[in-house]
C-alpha cells in the first residue's frame, strides 16, 4: 500500500498493586523459577509465546484491560504474592560459610568472563553449550551466595533462528535484539549520565556503555559499542555473536578482555579472582598487566601478579579449535601496549606462542595459559586430553603431572528439572531436598517413589514434549507446502494423548564430530529395528549447524531426506528452531537420550545430565561426562572403538554396538510391560539415572569444586603476591629469571651405587651430586619417583625428596636420603630435579624438569 508506515507502541500502565511485576521481569531469577514464568503466561498465553517468553516485553504489550482485571483478581494476586514471597526469601537467605580451604572471604570477588551467556530465550546472547554452561555457572553462584560478577558483550544479534525447508536446507534468520525488551538496564554515573569506558584501538578510542542484567543475587555486566561517538564500523563490533571476519573477532575479544577489566574498574569493583571461561577473554591478562606496570612494576613482575589469581577453563578438545590471530594483526592492535609495558615485539608475541619459542600465529589459549596459574578442562577425559594438547607449555613435564587440572561440568538443577517432580520429591525425599543436591543418601530416596507415580510423571513429561513437537512440526510442514494428510502420517507416533511410544532424542549442534548420522550407518539394520509395529520407536532430532559449516548443514539434509522415506516416516522427526524452550522440553520428555560423539572429542556435554535428572536414560559413547557418570546400572554405554581404525571402520564398529543395544536391550526392556502398563525394569533404571547423576552433576558440586581447587587458592595467592606493594610477585619474577638463566647449566650425577634387590625393612641410601650453576640448594628439589614397572610417572607415583647435605667441589652439591621402601615386589625408580619456591602456585608451573 502507498504511504509511509510510522511505528508506534502503546505501553500499558501497570496498576500499583502489580508494580512488583516489573521487578520480577528484570531479574533473571525467572529463568530458573517456573512459577514466575507461569505467572506471566497465565495473563495471556498467546502474548507470552509471541514475545518469546520475555516478561519485560510482555509487560510492555499486555492489554490494559487484561492487566487491570488481573489487579482486581484475588486468585492472580494470591499467586503473585506467593511468587514474590519466594523471590524475597531467595534474596534474603543468609550467606552460609563460603566454600574453599581456606574459605573465600567476604571481601573476595570472582570476576567471570565469557563471550556468551545462555540464561533464557528472553536474553538471546548465546549460541550453544558454552553459553548455557556460563549461564548455569552464574545461576549456581547466585544460589550459593558466592561473591561473583560476570562480564560479557551485548549483541544486537545473538545466534540465528533456524528454519528447514522440505529438502532439509537450513536457513539462518537474524533479527536485531530490542534492548528495551530484554532484562537489562543501563548503568549510570552518580550524576545520572550513562557510565561509559574507552578502549584503545589503533589511532582511536572506542567507547562502550555498560548494561546490567540481574542474575538472582549477582550481576552480569555487558558492553555495547553502538554509540554515536563511535564510527559505523566500531558501532558494529558487538553487533553479532561470533560474526564478521578476523578483524571483527579480535576487536570483540579486545572489547571483552580489555574493556571488561576497565568496566569493572569504572564500577568500583576490585576482583580478587579472575576466571577466563574459554580463550576469547584472554586479552584481560594484558590489560591487568598494563594496570600493574603503571604502578612501577616490571612486565615480568606484573605478569606474575596477574597470573597468580587467574583461572582459565578450556572447553576445546582439539588444537585447531583454539582461537588464533596473525602476528601482524596482534601487533597492529597492541603496539601501544608494548610501549606502555616496556615490551618488544618478540616479548608480546611470545605470550601467544604454543611451547617455548614456537612459531605460528598468536594463540589465545597460549596467552590464557601464560597469564594464569590455574587451568582446567571440563571432564576427567577432557582434562587428560587438554594436558596433552597444551603439554608444550610445560615442555619438560609429563602430561600426567603438568598443571592442567579438570572440573567436570554440571547443570543448574532448578533450570532444567521439570517442576512436575517437585511435589513428588517433597513427599519422598523430604522437604528441603533442593538444599541437599550433593547428598547421595538424599537421592537414594528416589527409589522409594512408587513405580506407578514415577511412570505417570514420566509419561506426562513426554506428553508435554510431544505437544510442542507436534506444533513445531506442523508449522514447519505447512510452511513448506505439505498436506494435512501427510502431516497426520508424520505425527502418528507423536501423540500427546497416548505417549506410550519409546521416544529417543538427539538434540545438539550439528557438528560432524557429534555424528548425528551414526544411527543411519546401516539403513537395513535400522529399518529392521523400526519396522516392528508392536514395539514402535520414535527418534526426534533437533539442532543447528553453524551457517558456515557445510558438512554440518549436510547432516541436516541427510536426516531430513531419510525422515521423508516411507519406511522411516513418522519414526524419525527433524524439528526446526532448536532453542532453550525446546531443549528444556526434550531433556525432560524423551525416554532415551542419544549421544554418540567421536571419542575423545566431547569435552564434557551437559545435555545428557539434564535428561538424566529428569528420569531419561542415557545411551551414549563413553566420552566427556558419561565416562564418569556411567556405572553399568544407570544407562547404556557405547565403548569407543579400538584406536587405529580408519573413520569408516570406527563408525561401523560403534554403530553396530548402537544397533545391538537398541535391539537387544533398550527396546525389549521398555516394552517388557506388566499388567500395570509399564516396565518395572525400565522404571528401576530411570530411577537409578536420577539417583546416580543428580548428586554428582549439579552446579553446587561443580562450584564447590571450583572454589576448593581454584577460587580460594587463587584469592590466597593474590593476597600473598600483592602484599607489601607486590613484594611476592616481584620476588617470584626475579627468582624465575635467575632459574631460567641457570637452568641450561644444571647437571645431575649419581654418587651412590645402585642396588637391585633388598629385603623388606632394609634401608637404602641415595646420593646425588647436583651442579647448581649459581643457584642456591633451596632453589631446587631433587626427588626420587617410585612406580611399578611400566607405569607412567603420574600424580599417583610415590615421591621422596632428597635433602641437601653439603657443598662438593666444582660447584656441585650433595643431596641424599636414606629410604626404607614400604612395599614389596618389583618397582622402578627414577631421579629428577626441578625448580622450587614457596610462592609457586603449582610445583611444575615453570615446565622445567631434568631426569638423571
Q: What profile does the largest beta sheet have?
A: 10 strands, mixed
Structural class: alpha/beta
> Any idea what the radius of gyration is?
29 Å
- Please tally the β strands and state the result: 27
How would you describe the shape? globular
Can you tell me the residue ranges where pLDDT is under 50 for at least 5 consecutive residues? none
End-to-end CA span? 87 Å
The portion of residues forming beta strands comes to 15-25%
Measured as a percent range, the helix fraction is: 25-40%
Instruction: Tell me the number of helical segments per DSSP (H or I, 4 or more residues long).
Output: 28
Quote the average pLDDT.
95
Description:
The protein has 852 residues and is α/β, with parallel strands linked by helices. The chain contains 28 helices and 27 strands. Strands 1, 2, 5, 6, 7, 8, 9, 10, 13 and 14 form a ten-stranded mixed β-sheet that branches. Helix 19 packs antiparallel against helix 23. The mean pLDDT is 95.
Summarize the structure.
With about 850 residues, the protein is α/β, with parallel strands linked by helices.
List the helices and strands and how they pair.
Layout: H1 21-25, H2 34-41, H3 45-50, H4 55-61, H5 64-71, H6 74-92, E1 110-113, H7 129-143, E2 148-153, E3 161-164, E4 170-173, E5 185-186, E6 196-201, E7 204-215, E8 218-224, H8 232-235, H9 246-266, E9 273-277, H10 284-293, H11 299-308, E10 310-313, E11 324-325, H12 327-341, H13 345-350, E12 362-363, H14 364-370, E13 374-377, H15 380-389, E14 404-406, H16 413-416, H17 422-429, H18 440-443, H19 451-479, H20 484-490, E15 502-507, H21 523-530, E16 537-542, H22 550-563, E17 572-575, H23 580-589, E18 592-595, H24 607-613, E19 617-621, H25 626-629, E20 635-638, H26 647-670, H27 680-693, H28 699-742, E21 747-750, E22 764-771, E23 780-787, E24 798-807, E25 812-819, E26 828-835, E27 850-851
Parallel strand pairs: 1-2, 1-9, 2-8, 9-10, 10-13, 13-14, 15-16, 15-18, 16-17, 18-19, 19-20
Antiparallel strand pairs: 3-4, 5-7, 6-7, 7-8, 11-12, 21-22, 22-25, 23-24, 23-26, 24-25, 26-27
Amino acid at each position: 500500500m502507498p504511504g509511509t508506515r510510522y511505528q508506534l507502541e502503546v505501553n500499558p500502565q501497570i496498576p500499583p498493586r502489580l508494580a512488583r511485576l516489573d521487578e520480577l521481569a528484570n531479574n533473571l531469577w525467572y529463568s530458573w523459577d517456573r512459577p514466575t514464568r507461569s505467572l506471566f503466561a497465565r495473563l495471556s498465553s498467546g502474548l507470552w509465546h509471541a514475545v518469546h517468553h520475555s516478561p519485560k516485553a510482555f509487560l510492555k504489550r499486555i492489554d490494559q484491560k487484561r492487566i487491570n482485571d488481573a489487579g482486581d483478581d484475588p486468585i492472580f494476586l494470591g499467586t503473585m504474592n506467593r511468587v514474590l514471597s519466594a523471590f524475597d526469601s531467595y534474596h534474603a537467605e543468609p550467606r552460609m560459610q563460603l566454600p574453599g580451604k581456606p574459605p573465600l572471604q567476604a571481601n573476595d570477588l570472582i570476576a567471570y568472563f565469557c563471550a556468551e551467556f545462555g540464561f533464557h530465550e528472553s536474553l538471546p546472547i548465546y549460541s550453544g553449550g558454552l553459553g548455557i554452561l556460563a549461564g548455569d555457572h552464574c545461576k549456581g553462584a547466585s544460589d550459593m551466595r558466592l561473591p561473583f560478577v560476570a562480564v560479557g558483550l551485548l549483541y544486537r544479534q545473538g545466534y540465528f533462528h533456524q528454519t528447514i525447508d522440505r529438502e532439509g536446507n537450513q536457513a539462518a534468520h537474524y533479527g536485531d535484539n530490542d534492548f528495551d525488551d530484554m532484562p537489562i538496564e543501563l548503568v549510570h554515573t552518580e550524576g545520572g549520565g550513562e557510565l561509559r569506558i574507552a578502549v584503545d584501538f589503533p589511532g582511536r578510542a572506542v567507547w562502550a556503555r555498560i548494561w546490567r542484567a540481574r542474575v538472582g543475587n549477582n550481576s552480569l555486566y555487558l558492553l555495547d559499542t553502538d554509540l554515536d561517538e563511535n564510527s559505523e564500523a566500531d558501532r558494529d563490533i558487538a553487533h553479532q555473536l561470533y560474526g564478521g571476519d578476523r578483524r571483527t573477532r579480535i576487536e570483540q575479544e579486545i572489547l571483552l578482555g580489555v574493556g571488561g577489566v576497565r568496566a569493572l574498574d569504572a564500577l568500583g569493583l576490585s576482583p580478587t579472582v579472575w576466571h577466563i571461561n574459554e580463550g576469547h577473554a584472554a586479552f584481560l591478562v594484558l590489560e591487568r598487566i598494563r594496570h600493574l606496570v603503571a604502578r612501577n612494576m616490571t612486565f615480568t613482575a606484573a605478569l606474575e601478579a596477574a597470573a597468580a589469581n587467574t583461572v582459565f577453563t578450556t572447553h576445546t578438545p582439539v588444537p585447531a579449535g583454539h582461537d588464533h590471530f596473525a602476528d601482524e594483526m596482534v601487533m597492529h592492535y597492541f603496539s601501544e601496549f608494548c610501549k606502555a609495558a616496556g615490551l618488544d615485539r618478540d616479548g608480546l608475541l611470545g605470550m601467544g606462542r604454543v611451547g617455548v619459542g614456537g612459531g605460528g600465529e598468536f594463540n589465545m589459549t597460549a596467552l590464557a595459559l601464560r597469564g594464569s596459574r590455574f587451568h582446567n578442562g571440563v571432564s576427567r577425559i577432557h582434562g587428560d586430553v587438554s594436558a596433552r594438547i597444551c603439554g608444550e607449555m610445560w615442555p619438560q613435564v609429563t602430561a600426567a603431572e603438568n598443571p592442567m587440572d579438570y572440573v567436570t561440568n554440571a547443570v543448574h538443577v532448578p533450570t532444567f528439572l521439570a517442576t512436575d517432580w517437585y511435589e513428588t520429591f517433597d513427599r519422598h525425599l523430604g522437604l528441603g531436598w533442593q538444599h541437599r543436591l550433593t547428598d547421595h543418601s538424599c537421592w537414594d530416596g528416589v527409589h522409594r517413589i512408587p513405580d506407578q507415580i514415577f511412570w505417570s510423571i514420566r509419561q506426562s513429561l513426554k506428553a508435554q514434549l510431544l505437544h510442542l513437537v507436534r506444533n513445531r512440526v506442523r508449522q514447519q510442514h505447512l510452511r513448506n507446502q505439505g498436506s494435512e494428510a501427510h502431516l497426520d502420517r508424520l505425527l502418528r507416533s507423536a501423540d500427546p494423548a497416548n505417549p506410550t511410544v519409546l521416544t529417543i532424542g538427539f538434540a545438539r549442534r550439528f557438528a560432524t564430530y557429534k555424528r548425528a548420522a551414526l544411527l543411519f550407518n546401516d539403513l537395513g539394520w535400522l529399518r529392521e529395528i523400526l519396522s516392528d509395529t508392536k514395539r514402535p520407536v520414535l527418534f526426534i532430532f533437533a539442532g543447528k549447524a553453524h551457517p558456515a559449516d557445510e558438512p554440518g548443514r549436510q547432516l541436516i539434509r541427510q536426516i531430513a531426506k531419510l525422515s521423508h522415506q516411507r519406511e522411516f516416516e513418522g519414526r524419525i522427526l527433524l524439528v526446526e528452531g532448536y532453542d532453550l524452550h525446546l531443549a528444556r522440553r526434550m531433556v525432560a520428555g524423551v525416554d532415551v537420550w542419544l549421544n554418540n560423539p567421536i571419542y575423545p572429542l566431547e569435552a564434557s556435554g551437559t545435555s545428557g545430565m539434564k535428561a538424566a535428572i529428569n528420569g531419561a536414560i542415557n545411551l551414549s559413547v563413553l566420552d566427556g561426562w558419561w565416562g564418569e557418570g556411567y556405572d553399568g546400572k544407570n544407562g547404556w554405554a557405547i565403548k569407543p572403538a579400538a584406536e587405529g581404525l580408519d573413520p569408516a571402520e570406527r563408525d561401523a564398529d560403534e554403530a553396530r554396538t548402537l544397533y545391538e543395544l537398541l535391539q537387544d536391550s533398550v527396546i525389549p526392556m521398555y516394552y517388557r510391560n506388566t499388567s500395570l502398563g509399564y516396565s518395572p525394569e525400565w522404571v528401576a533404571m530411570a530411577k537409578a539415572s536420577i539417583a546416580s547423576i543428580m548428586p554428582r552433576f549439579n552446579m553446587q558440586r561443580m562450584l564447590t569444586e571450583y572454589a576448593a581447587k581454584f577460587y580460594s587458592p587463587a584469592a590466597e595467592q593474590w593476597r600473598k603476591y600483592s602484599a607489601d606493594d607486590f613484594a611476592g610477585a616481584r620476588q617470584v619474577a626475579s627468582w624465575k629469571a635467575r632459574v631460567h638463566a641457570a637452568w641450561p647449566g644444571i647437571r645431575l650425577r649419581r654418587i651412590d651405587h645402585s642396588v637391585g634387590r633388598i629385603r623388606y625393612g632394609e634401608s637404602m641410601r641415595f646420593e646425588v651430586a647436583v651442579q647448581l650453576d649459581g643457584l642456591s640448594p633451596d632453589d631446587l628439589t631433587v626427588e626420587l619417583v617410585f612406580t611399578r614397572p611400566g607405569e607412567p610417572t603420574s600424580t599417583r607415583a610415590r615421591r621422596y625428596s632428597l635433602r641437601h647435605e653439603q657443598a662438593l667441589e666444582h660447584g656441585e652439591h650433595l643431596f641424599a636420603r636414606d629410604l626404607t621402601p614400604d612395599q614389596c615386589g618389583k618397582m622402578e625408580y627414577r631421579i629428577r630435579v626441578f625448580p622450587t619456591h614457596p610462592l609457586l602456585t603449582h610445583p611444575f608451573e615453570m615446565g622445567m624438569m631434568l631426569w638423571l
